[in-house]
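The following record pairs a protein chain with its ligand, manganese (II) ion.
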Amino acid sequence: MSQPISDEFINEANVAQIDNLNRDYENLGEKLLRSGIIIDDIMEKAKVFSVAVPSWGVGTGGTRFARFPGLSEPRNIFEKLDDCSIIQSMVKVTPEVSPHFPWDVVEDMTEVKDYADNLNLSFASVNSNTFQDQPGQAKSFKYGSLTHTDKQTRDIAIQHNIDCINWGKTLGSKVITVWIGDGSNFPGQQNFTGALERYLGSMREIYAELPDDWKVFIEHKMFEPAFYSTVIQDWGTNVLCAMELGDKAYSLVDLGHHAPNVNIEMIVARLIQFKKLAGFHFNDSKYGDDDLDSGSIHPYQQFLIFNELVDAEMRGAEGFAPDYMLDQSHNVTDPIESLMTSAMSVQRSYTQALMVDRPSLADYQNGCDALMASQTLKDAFETDVTPILQMARLNSGGAIDPVACYRAAEYRKNIAGERPAVQSSGSGIV
Ligand SMILES: [Mn+2]
């Protein structure tokens, strides 16, 4: 990468805003102190918050109809890491990247690891892909992968997941996330029980290959690409499979992968209670698996999810160590801008949830005071924590206003010569 955005550039952009930030931070600190909240304590927690960026998220996404590429799109894993590094340099809460295989595979994966090390990036969960055929694949996944009726096809899918674990080992990852598109489009097309039996059989073989310190995350999704039934369709099937497989298996929650109006925060509470919460793919949705930017449609839902997470964190819930990741498709925005604002949105929800007066909430719950219990959550949600997030970024060497700083740097324009337009990238939607 020829022209990264330097620390000096970020510092200069911050200078003009520091006085206003200090005043805002001081005012908010005074206000919070009246409720017994020490603003620096909250800021320190916000500072160490972390959410991984998906490698495919830095490419422009598309719909089932078309994809409209943007300027200077990354063409391979190295350029994707460059873009992830820009995001991290601005927001300072995204030190990890989640790769997708085989999209991000190169002949020698140590090159990818070395490249990331140089950028101070590390790797979160690796993601397998058996929802499309690879060039030269002996058997097609058109009618399923890990659940296919044909054993040879299942074996190809199993082997791919084992390959992913091995690539992940080189990258220093400790988790593989498995999402399959397997399902059916017609009633009668698939035997529900048989398909799930085959899934468990395949997953047991993958599970057996996990190193001792690894986990496997199961991702469910209600529909798409299968539109009548999906084998791992909801959190119920997900957690049953995770329990069946063993202690290294956990259930991942992608916010867009549920039926409309489902109480996701309650699902989160249940998974925490039974020590099966893997973590999240954050995004937002209006209708289905829209993969819109986190917090752009239902910020209160995102807050309520973090309310459960912070509650578990505060009471030291056993085995509670969720992985946070973004999983979005950016069709009309610059993906770097969307990922920065989404990471900050998730960090905002976490910070708001830290504001909840939990002793009072417990008293209202025990005293059956529904109105005040609800208001206690609303008070935290309606607190403008912007100065806390800005101060956390400033203290970490990031940008007070990441989008403005990024736009001023003209990153895409500066690297356009190195990244000629390509017809399609390896990006997709999961
Ligand atoms: Mn996902």
